[in-house]
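If your schedule permits, I should be very grateful for your opinion on a structural question. Thank you for your consideration; the sequence and its tokens are set out here:

===
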Amino acid sequence: MSKPLESLTGRAAVLLEDGIDTDVIFPARFLLRMEKEGLGECLFADRISKTTEDAAGAFSLERKDGEAVQILLAGAQFGCGSSREHAVWSLVDFGIRAVIAPSFGEIFSNNSARNGLAAICLDRDQVEYLAQESAVADLTVDLLAKTVTIQAGKTFAFDIGEGDRQALLNGWDEIDMIHAAHSDDVENFESGYRERRPWLFKDQA
């Protein structure tokens, strides 16, 4: 399970380049690392700095007050390319809980909600507006209302599958989703299986 997500507010990092693939998000040389914890240090390892010490205009994943961002504004087809789930894991481990973009790689999008990352689609002009305003204002992502709001500015509604929304609101992974939707069926199957094959469970009585 991941930490439940209902809403979050803060400054956003901006990376509006289209086609940021999973190898850019999480370089292939780190794929042998299988534990989710600590993967945040590999995030965008070959492309950007995570500090405010970058040259002017460079991308940073830290705010000027030194706090890490939780929201990323991105270009179209963010997370395209290979199916590596590490890309989502590294974003969440770093502390990013929402990526807002015009579109996402399909597998990346499918991996996101059940790992605690909200992949939110808005129109390109809306993302660009948020990117411009986010330099001086906080964004609020609200999964209950299904809106993104810029402080003292506009509010944009977004669509999200109800299954994905429930996964994020409750911190559910795929197994949790199955139990939530089919717990009675699972219990009935287990009970019937025990009755049909009692010898398999004699040591557990």
